[in-house]
Specification:
It comes from Caenorhabditis brenneri. Keywords: Coiled coil. The chain has helices at residues 34-47, 104-120, 145-151, 194-200, 216-240, 250-290, 343-348, 353-357, 363-404, 411-421, 435-441, 444-451, 458-476, 484-504, 512-528, 540-552, 559-579; strands spanning 5-15, 21-31, 61-70, 73-80, 93-99, 123-127, 132-141, 323-325, 332-334. It has 585 residues and is α+β, with helices and mostly antiparallel strands. A hairpin with a 4-residue loop joins β6 and β7. It is elongated.
Length: 585
């Protein structure tokens, strides 16, 4: 099969441990004849009775374009749904891989020819052992939301119009942010089509977005994290910080922590500035004590119009010689010669002492005035330090609960131990929350166990019911064909989910995953009668195979040879899978 692939070397910039940048050679492998490779695989599958047709595929060959970035490499694969285990990494046809991101620009620059081959594939002819058989090709897409957006040149899930299926528009920031209580996240807006994507950009695939399979596993990972687990984390923290006025939701707690850190930084700057002002004032007092009164006619040009100019005496490393012009007499004075050092006092000083008080201020009076400012500044330093210590203590206590999962006897520690007990140790980040962990968490017995760790409350009961609904919906999102009755049941559960999220989390922001499921899951399954045999997790199994090969082929320096070694490995795995039990006959 290697003859149907090309491998070229790419210069990839990398950053060394010292911080310098250099380039290394990495392989870019891509298929050159998708039709020939697919024809060979279908022939092998058919001749070994491993090519299946059912209600979901009909009489067509159903293929799914998928991909993902794992480590530093992006892989593009083709999944054949007419096999018994389409998500098996050994069954997936490797179309290409390269070092880089899975964004639209990188995919277009590296794999444009591969997408053209996929788009041109409308019908395929293969040999079943007796005759040539021609069948239509049914094409779909699957992947995480970011990848689907990249296929269509969509700006991505973090933009205002984040949904790749419709033109819903909302923001999660600012005073007009969309919240669950008021935003109709369960309603689909005007649908996007291939033509609308072509009008707005350069999609890589010639398929309407309705042909994209919803990434249900990623959707549940994100929604369970945001609307269930984050609640438990926030509620446990809220209970542990009972004597501190702290918000209940994790989202608001993180914002409150940021505000505490900003407030602490503000008081640190204030104390630092006040201490600097005190040093400057003391230096002014010291300089005034050394100054001898000089007649104006004897003054040199560097001196200002103050009767006690200290510009040639004061330590300029401590006190600067910035000046101002008096709006009454129009003379120029150094701020320090008028006993003014703080930023706030400088901003309001517009007149000299003589014009302001209508008397000539003597040196002794000015010294007394500056000494009084020193005492006031010292008092302000003490006051600001007390406030800073209070804010710092509160911040450190909150940080301890956030980062250390609490100490023995705290609610956060109890919750952490409970999550570990049910097999969900890395629950604090959706990137760590695997599909298996979500399934474990959404077992009814585990839901009850976690909820019962907390003091009973009406909101907790709503969280329990919402978790039950997620459990039912996730179980229903399998590859089986759904009857109209089953779809209607799912639609009712989605309605209940929407109502519970609105009442339980009225102030929480909207996630694109929540919108995708609430607004599009039912219409998707009504059209296809199934969520499909493929899922976005399928290609992620290939990352493990790539990691093993990288370790095995570490001594291989030539990027071209290494690229072909990868291609040979995966095409050989495809052949063994296609032969099934007959591979060694």
């Amino acid at each position: 099969m290697a003859k149907y692939y090309e491998v070229i070397g790419q210069d990839i910039p990398i950053r060394t441990l010292s911080g310098a940048y250099t380039t290394v050679k990495r392989p870019l492998a891509r298929i050159t004849s998708l039709t020939d490779v697919l024809k060979f695989r279908l022939s092998t599958l058919s001749q070994n009775s491993r090519l299946f047709f059912d209600d979901s595929t009909g009489d067509d060959i159903s293929i799914v374009l998928s991909g993902d970035k794992g480590g530093t490499e992006t892989k593009l694969v083709l999944i054949i749904e007419n096999v018994d285990k389409p998500n098996n990494s050994k069954a997936q046809l490797l179309l290409a891989f390269y070092t880089g991101n899975d964004d639209h620009k990188s995919l277009q620059n590296n794999l444009a020819d591969v997408f053209i081959q996929f788009n041109d594939l409308q019908e395929i002819t293969y040999f079943d052992g007796k005759n040539d058989v021609s069948r239509k090709v049914k094409k779909k897409l699957v992947g995480d939301i970011k990848l689907i957006c990249a296929f269509y040149n969509h700006p991505g899930p973090n933009c205002l119009e984040s949904c790749f299926l419709c033109y819903v528009k909302y923001s999660n920031h600012g005073k007009n942010k969309a919240i669950c209580k008021t935003f109709p996240f369960e309603i689909s807006q005007a649908l996007r089509t291939l033509n609308t994507y072509k009008d707005e950009g350069y999609p890589l695939v010639e398929l309407d977005p309705v042909r994209a399979i919803l990434p249900t596993l990623h959707i549940f990972q994100g929604t369970v994290q945001k609307y269930i687990i984050d609640f438990f984390i926030g509620y446990a923290t809220f209970l542990d910080l009972g004597d501190i006025q702290f918000p209940e939701s994790l989202e608001d707690q993180r914002q409150a922590l940021k505000e505490l850190e900003a407030e602490e930084e503000l008081y640190v700057k204030r104390v630092k500035t006040l201490c600097e002002d005190k040093d400057k004032l003391n230096e002014v007092v010291k300089a005034l004590g050394k100054e001898k009164k000089t007649e104006r006619s004897q003054k040199v040009e560097a001196l200002c119009q103050s009767p006690v100019c200290i510009s040639r005496i004061v330590n300029q490393k401590i006190v600067d010689l910035k000046s101002f012009r008096c709006e009454e007499c129009n003379y120029t004075f150094h701020f320090c010669c008028e006993g003014v050092v703080s930023i706030s006092e400088r901003a309001t000083t517009q007149q000299c002492h003589q014009c302001k008080e209508n008397v000539i201020v003597c040196k002794d009076e000015l010294i007394k005035e500056v000494q009084e400012k020193v005492r006031n500044t010292e008092n302000m330093v003490v006051k600001e330090q007390c406030i800073w210590e209070h804010v710092n203590d509160e911040k450190e206590r909150v940080l301890q609960v956030f980062s250390d999962f609490g100490s023995d006897g705290t609610m956060r520690k109890t919750f952490d131990d409970g999550m570990k007990k049910i097999g969900c140790a890395n629950y604090h980040c959706s990137k760590n929350l695997t599909g298996n962990m979500v399934r474990k968490f959404l077992r009814k017995s585990n839901i009850d166990y976690i909820v019962d760790l907390f003091p009973k409350s009406p909101k907790l009961e709503k969280i329990r019911q919402l978790s039950y609904i997620f459990e039912k919906l996730m179980s229903a999102c399998d590859s089986s064909l759904k009857s109209d009755y089953e779809i209607d049941e799912m639609a009712e559960e989605v309605k209940r989910m929407v109502e519970l999220i609105r009442t339980t989390h009225p102030e929480k922001t909207i996630s694109v995953k929540l919108h995708l499921f609430a607004a599009h899951a039912i219409s998707c399954i009504r059209e296809h009668k199934s969520f499909g045999k493929s899922c976005e997790q399928g290609v992620e199994h290939m990352h493990c195979d790539f990691n093993q090969l990288h370790r095995l082929l570490a001594p291989m320096i030539d990027p071209i040879a290494k690229g072909f070694a990868f291609v040979n490995h995966f095409t050989n795995q495809n052949y063994l899978f296609d032969r099934g039990e007959n591979w060694n006959i």
